[in-house]
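Why should sequence recovery work at all? Because a backbone constrains its sequence more than one might expect. Tight turns favour small or flexible residues, buried strands favour hydrophobic ones, and helices have their own preferences. The token representation captures these environments compactly. In the example below, the structure is given first.
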């Protein structure tokens, strides 16, 4: 029987494990179809739902394109990737896992830099001394640009991070970073501090609904059934 609703869940890592635990507790456990390493499945006890296993980043793209009705992924990825968040997805429910803060962090030795207002002054001094802009290492280029613009900080350029972002200042490839943190331990280990007003986003995993997917009465009924089971 063809599925009436599709839901994308993370295919690997801690998000996958936590999503599996969440659905299991709700009595609609994730069940893979066919081979254990396959990428399709179903929800136990809820007919008409197809589970699609994708990377957390690909889930965002599928929600945007309407390729799936629902998706479990991080708010940080949604807000970084989608230009029109409210027009693309609906926030159905925070899920209580995958928590991480997206923050602006600078070296501990920048004693006089406590907040975003100090960064523009530092950028001007840095440009006079070194003839170039401050480099900000990050995987969150869009969130960074919007946040910095909101604080009137312009004297910087983004260096896209492909590895351990927190290590870039010590390596000399950036002066400061925008990255995710849960406890701050890794930042402190790399002699970095979060600016007083440097919290860009408090993120966690959410259940999202695509606004452009094909919603009929059956899909809507299944969505409501899933929401009822996934009570906070």
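From this structural description, the recovered sequence reads:
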């Amino acid at each position: 029987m063809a599925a009436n609703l599709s839901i994308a869940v993370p295919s690997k890592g801690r998000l996958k494990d936590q999503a599996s635990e969440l659905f299991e507790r709700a009595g609609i456990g994730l069940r893979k179809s066919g081979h254990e390493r396959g990428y399709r499945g179903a929800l136990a006890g809820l007919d008409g739902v197809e589970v699609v296993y994708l990377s957390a980043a690909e889930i965002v793209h599928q929600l945007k394109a309407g390729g799936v009705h629902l998706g479990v992924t991080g708010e940080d990825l949604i807000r970084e990737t989608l230009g029109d968040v409210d027009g693309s997805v609906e926030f159905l429910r925070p899920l209580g896992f995958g928590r991480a803060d997206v923050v602006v962090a600078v070296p501990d030795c920048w004693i006089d830099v406590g907040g975003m207002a100090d960064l523009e002054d530092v950028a001007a001094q840095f440009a006079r001394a070194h003839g170039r802009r401050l480099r900000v290492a990050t995987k969150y280029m869009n969130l960074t640009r919007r946040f910095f613009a909101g604080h009137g900080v312009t004297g910087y350029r983004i260096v896209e991070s492909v590895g351990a972002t927190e290590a870039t200042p010590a390596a000399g490839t950036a002066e400061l970073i925008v990255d995710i943190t849960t406890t701050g331990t890794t930042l402190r280990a790399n002699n970095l501090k979060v600016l007083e007003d440097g919290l860009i986003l408090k993120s966690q995993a959410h259940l999202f609904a695509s606004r452009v997917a094909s919603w009929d009465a059956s899909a809507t009924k299944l969505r409501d059934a899933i929401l009822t089971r996934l009570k906070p």
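A few observations help interpret the result. Residues 5-98+204-229 form a domain with the D-Maltodextrin-Binding Protein; domain 2 fold (CATH 3.40.190.10).
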